[in-house]
Design brief:
about 400 residues, Rossmann fold, globular
Length: about 400
């Protein structure tokens, strides 16, 4: 069964879990989410597969990283990622940095024999992602690309229903990921608006999640047609400044997907959907049924089955908190909902399980191979937008 519903069951004498030294590169949004997960799984998902020893945290701003060290509970801090990678107490390198800082630290960590979890998208393009994949495969280390939406119980249930044949032959996949956080033209520049640091705009930031769900739920993507658009061509260099800097990434993207095994799909991502916060819709249609999920209703999955009697046919709202559901025996009584932060706890528990056992995170978790293939799709969509033509995808690995 997908998920870790068996986590809480323990027969026989309790074994002391191993300790794994963690070094975190990056301390902001994702660094906070990852640190919380490492700390909380030790007592909330008992017994843990390993105890995360928070050894070192790294960031470029000395004052900020010192504050993060105290706040999150790491033993020490540094402004040098190389120093963190070389630290003999660090066994796992957690790379939560902006996209342009994924490549070098991951290559160095692999060469040093460290297990690695890296935030998505894995690289700024497929070439970077492939280099990271080849490095971890040469080193034989455990590796994971942090697509945390795989660890939403409702989406794990969706995958289980698809794999069990409850939807029959799959025809359609559609995803729409809408946010409004960048709709203000006077919202200042950040690394996310620069191609040299981000690689992509909404396509990589949001679309990588949708592409991962497409691959994870349906299968490999064979060809793509894409359109990208930048609505706000420049932004203030900093809050309140009259000086503006060109935006070099997309604000929105549309795509047509053709899967290798026959289904077709659509994808829409935007950071300029006024009023939307984190609206990530996923729908799958098959010959026997359909699924519908909205990330703003995180605990719910809507399911339609043609095999239901006519008098009760229709979409049914399933609250994915029952004991039989993914992670159902780990948390609260049925009906007591989970939050976004729990996805990181599920993700880090899964990763530490693989680290402690010396194994792979697949198929539930995303490996660097998944991260690479995700980048191939994103590159193909960008190429299609530039050329106006459909792109047949080729995966080198």
């Amino acid at each position: 069964m997908d998920g870790e519903a068996r986590l809480a069951s323990s027969n026989g004498p309790l074994k002391t879990p191993p300790t794994v030294g963690v070094g975190l590169i990056g301390y902001a949004f994702m660094g906070r989410a990852h640190s919380h997960a490492f700390k909380a799984i030790q007592y909330m998902m008992w017994p843990p597969p390993a105890v995360a020893d928070l050894v070192s945290i790294c960031g470029r701003n000395q004052d900020a990283v010192q504050e993060a060290r105290s706040r999150y509970g790491y033993k020490r801090w540094t402004t040098s990622w190389q120093e963190l990678v070389d630290d003999p107490e660090v066994q796992v390198v957690d790379n939560s940095t902006p996209n342009n800082l994924h490549l070098e630290p991951c290559l160095a960590a692999a060469a040093a024999g460290k297990d690695i979890i890296c935030e998505k998208p894995l690289g700024r393009d497929a070439d970077e992602s492939r280099a990271m994949l080849e490095a971890v495969e040469r080193a034989g280390v455990t590796h994971m690309c942090a697509f945390n939406y795989r660890f939403i119980p409702a989406l794990q249930l969706a995958r289980r229903l698809i794999q069990d044949g409850r939807l029959g032959q799959i025809y359609h996949f559609r995803a729409s990921y809408q946010q409004s956080g960048r709709v203000d033209p006077n919202s200042p520049m950040t690394w996310r608006f620069r191609r040299d640091t981000a690689g992509f705009g909404a396509l990589g930031d949001l679309g990588s999640h949708s592409v991962d769900q497409a691959r994870w739920l349906i299968g490999e993507i064979g060809s793509v047609s894409g359109l990208t658009k930048t609505f706000i061509p420049d932004r203030p260099v900093e809050a309140g400044s009259d000086r503006r800097e060109p935006v070099t990434v997309d604000d929105a993207a549309l795509a047509l997907l053709e899967f290798q095994d026959g289904p077709i799909g659509t994808l829409e991502v935007t950071r300029c959907a006024t009023g939307r916060k984190n609206y990530h819709l996923i729908e799958v249609n098959g010959s026997l049924g359909s699924l519908h999920f909205n990330c703003e209703r995180l605990n719910e999955l809507r399911f339609f089955s043609r095999e239901d009697p006519p008098e009760i046919q229709g979409f049914h709202d399933v609250l994915v908190t029952e004991r039989a559901h993914p992670y159902g025996t780990v948390w609260w009584p049925p009906g007591h909902i989970l939050g976004w932060e729990h996805t990181f706890m599920h993700e880090m528990h899964h990763f530490l399980t693989a680290v402690a056992g010396g194994g792979s995170v697949e198929p539930l978790g995303a490996t660097f191979r998944d991260g690479y293939r995700n980048s191939v799709v994103l590159d193909g969509l960008a190429e299609s937008s530039r050329t106006g033509r459909k792109v047949d995808l080729t995966y080198a690995s």
